[in-house]
C-alpha cells in the first residue's frame, strides 16, 4: 500500500485584521484576520518550517528520495529555492531537490507527482500572497506552508492515509495572471470562470470516484481549495456531498494561502480525521484536480507535531496595517541611517553549510562538551578533531541574558538579541523573532526557527533565530537525523 506517510503545516505567527485595512483606506470592513509572514520570512523559510513538522518522525529523513518545492512566489529566480530547504533539513546530497514554481497550480502538480512516484517524496507547498492595498487579494489572501511525505510500507514507514485515486483536468483559462516582475495579480470578472470551474471539478471528482469504486456519499471530508472563491463555494454546495462532510476553508482566520491552501486545509483535516475515513481534496486553478485518500489506524499516532488549529489560536495580536505594507515593500519607508548591511559571501556559506543551514553543532567525544558554532578543538579538554556532529534545530533552550537594540539595521525595530543556554549544553547568541520586548526576559523558554536574516545586494541570507515557546506548543525533544 502506498500513500501519505507524514505531514506538517506552518501558519505564520502574525495576523492582519481586515477591519484595520478598512479603517485606513475607508473601505467596507471585512471580518476576521489573515496570516502574515514576518519581515524575516519568505516562501523558502516557511517551507523549511512546514517540512520540519512533516519530518519530525524519528528516522524519516534518511528515507526521503526527492524534494519538490511548489510556490507562486519564489524567493529566487534562476537559482533553485528547494536546495536551501534541502540544506536546512540536512537531507542526503543525492536527494533530488527541485522547484515547481510560477503558478498556484504548481501545488497540485507537486502533490500528484509525489503521489505517483515510487520514490519516497517530500513535497512542500508554500506561498506569500500579496495584492494592491485594499484589494480582495490583499484582504482575502494569507501566507503559509504545508509539507507531505509520500511513500509506503516498503520504505519502512507506516501509511497514515492510503491513496485511493486521483484525477486531473487541465484547461487554458485567462482567469488570473501576473506578468514577471509584477508584485500583484490581475483577475478577470469572477462570473466568467465560475461555471467553468464547477464543470471541471465535477469531471475530475467523478473520474476519481469511479477509479476508487466509490460514490459521492462515501466522502467523509470534502476539501475544496482555489483562489476563485465563488467557484469553490459553488462546488462545496452543489457537488452532492453530505453537508456535514464539507470542511471549513479557514479564510476567515488566516486567509487563502494560494499555492499552500490545499496543503493547509488537508493538514487541518488530518489533524481531526479518524481512521477509516475518506478525504476528497479538490483543487481549482487552470483546471481541476482531485486526490482521494483513506486514513488508516497509523494516523492516530503519527499526526502533525503542530495542529493547524493550535497555530491559528497561537497567532499574535494584529500587526498595524502600515507595518504590513512596509514588510511587503508596498510602503517605502526611510531605512535606518546606518551602513547598508553586508551580503553573505558564497565560499564561506558553502564551506559551513551544515552550520548555516542545518544548525548542526559539534560535541566532543572525549568530554561531552557541545560547541556552537561547531569547532575542531574542544574548549574544555582541548581535544583535536574528536567531534561528533549534533543537529540542534529541535533543541530548546533558556534565555540567559538579552538586549534590546534600537540602533541596529532591521526592518522591524527594535532588534531583540538573546543569549540562549540549550538543553543538554551549549550557549549561543542570536536574534529573537515573533516576539515583543515583553518576551525578551531572562529564563524564557525558546526554540529555533529558520529565517531570512537580511537581503543585501540581491542575496538572501538565511540562518536560524530563536522564538518564544508559547502555551500549547508540543514539547519536542532533541532528535537525530537518523
TrEMBL record:
Enzymatic class: transferase
InterPro entries assigned: ChsH2_C, ChsH2_Znr, NA-bd_OB-fold, Thiolase-like
SUPFAM superfamilies: Nucleic acid-binding proteins, Thiolase-like
Coiled-coil region: none
Keyword Acyltransferase: yes
UniProt keyword terms in alphabetical order: Acyltransferase, Transferase
Ranges of residues in domain ChsH2 C-terminal OB-fold: 396-451
Organism superkingdom: Bacteria
Annotated ranges, domain ChsH2 rubredoxin-like zinc ribbon: 359-383
MF-aspect GO terms: hydroxymethylglutaryl-CoA synthase activity
EC id: 2.3.3.10
Protein name in UniProt: Hydroxymethylglutaryl-CoA synthase
Amino acid at each position: 500500500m502506498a500513500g501519505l506517510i507524514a505531514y506538517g503545516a506552518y501558519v505564520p505567527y502574525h495576523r492582519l485584521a481586515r477591519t484595520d485595512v478598512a479603517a485606513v483606506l475607508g473601505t467596507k470592513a471585512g471580518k476576521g484576520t489573515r496570516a502574515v509572514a514576518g519581515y524575516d520570512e519568505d516562501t523558502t523559510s516557511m517551507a523549511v518550517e512546514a517540512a520540519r513538522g512533516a519530518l519530525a518522525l524519528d528516522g524519516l529523513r534518511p528515507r526521503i528520495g526527492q524534494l519538490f518545492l511548489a510556490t507562486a512566489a519564489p524567493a529566487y529566480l534562476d537559482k533553485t529555492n528547494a536546495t536551501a530547504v534541502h540544506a536546512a533539513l540536512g537531507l542526503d546530497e543525492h536527494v533530488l531537490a527541485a522547484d515547481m514554481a510560477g503558478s498556484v497550480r504548481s501545488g497540485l502538480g507537486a502533490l500528484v507527482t509525489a503521489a505517483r512516484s515510487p520514490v519516497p517524496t517530500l513535497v512542500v507547498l508554500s506561498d506569500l500572497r500579496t495584492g494592491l492595498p485594499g484589494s480582495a487579494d490583499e484582504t482575502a489572501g494569507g501566507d503559509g506552508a504545508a509539507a507531505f511525505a509520500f511513500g509506503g510500507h516498503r520504505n519502512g514507514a507506516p501509511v497514515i492515509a492510503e491513496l485511493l485515486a486521483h484525477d486531473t483536468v487541465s484547461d487554458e483559462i485567462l482567469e488570473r495572471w501576473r506578468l514577471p516582475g509584477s508584485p500583484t495579480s490581475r483577475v478577470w470578472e469572477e462570473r466568467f470562470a465560475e461555471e467553468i470551474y464547477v464543470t471541471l471539478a465535477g469531471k475530475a471528482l467523478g473520474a476519481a470516484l469511479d477509479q476508487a469504486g466509490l460514490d459521492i456519499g462515501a466522502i467523509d471530508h470534502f476539501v475544496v481549495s482555489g483562489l476563485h472563491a465563488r467557484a469553490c463555494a459553488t462546488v462545496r454546495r452543489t457537488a452532492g456531498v453530505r453537508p456535514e462532510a464539507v470542511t471549513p476553508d479557514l479564510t476567515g482566520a488566516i486567509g487563502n494561502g494560494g499555492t499552500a491552501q490545499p496543503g493547509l486545509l488537508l493538514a487541518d483535516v488530518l489533524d481531526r480525521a479518524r481512521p477509516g475515513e475518506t478525504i476528497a481534496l479538490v483543487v481549482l486553478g487552470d483546471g481541476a484536480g482531485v486526490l482521494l485518500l483513506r486514513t488508516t489506524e497509523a494516523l492516530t499516532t503519527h499526526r502533525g507535531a503542530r495542529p493547524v488549529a493550535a497555530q491559528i489560536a497561537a497567532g499574535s495580536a494584529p500587526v498595524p496595517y502600515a507595518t504590513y505594507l512596509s514588510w511587503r515593500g508596498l510602503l517605502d519607508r526611510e531605512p535606518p541611517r546606518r551602513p547598508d548591511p553586508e551580503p553573505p559571501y558564497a565560499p564561506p556559506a558553502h564551506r559551513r553549510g551544515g552550520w548555516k543551514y542545518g544548525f548542526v553543532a559539534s560535541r566532543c567525544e572525549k568530554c561531552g562538551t557541545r560547541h556552537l558554532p561547531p569547532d575542531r578543538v574542544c574548549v574544555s579538554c582541548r581535544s583535536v578533531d574528536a567531534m561528533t556532529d549534533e543537529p540542534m534545530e529541535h533543541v530548546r533552550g533558556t534565555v540567559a541574558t538579552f538586549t534590546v537594540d534600537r540602533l541596529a539595521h532591521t526592518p522591524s525595530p527594535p532588534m531583540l538579541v538573546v543569549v540562549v543556554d540549550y538543553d543538554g549544553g551549549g550557549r549561543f547568541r542570536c536574534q529573537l523573532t515573533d516576539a515583543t520586548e515583553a518576551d525578551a526576559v531572562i529564563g524564557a523558554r525558546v526554540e529555533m526557527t529558520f529565517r531570512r536574516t537580511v537581503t543585501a545586494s540581491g542575496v538572501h541570507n538565511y540562518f536560524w533565530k530563536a522564538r518564544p515557546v508559547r502555551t500549547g506548543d508540543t514539547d519536542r525533544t532533541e532528535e537525530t537525523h537518523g
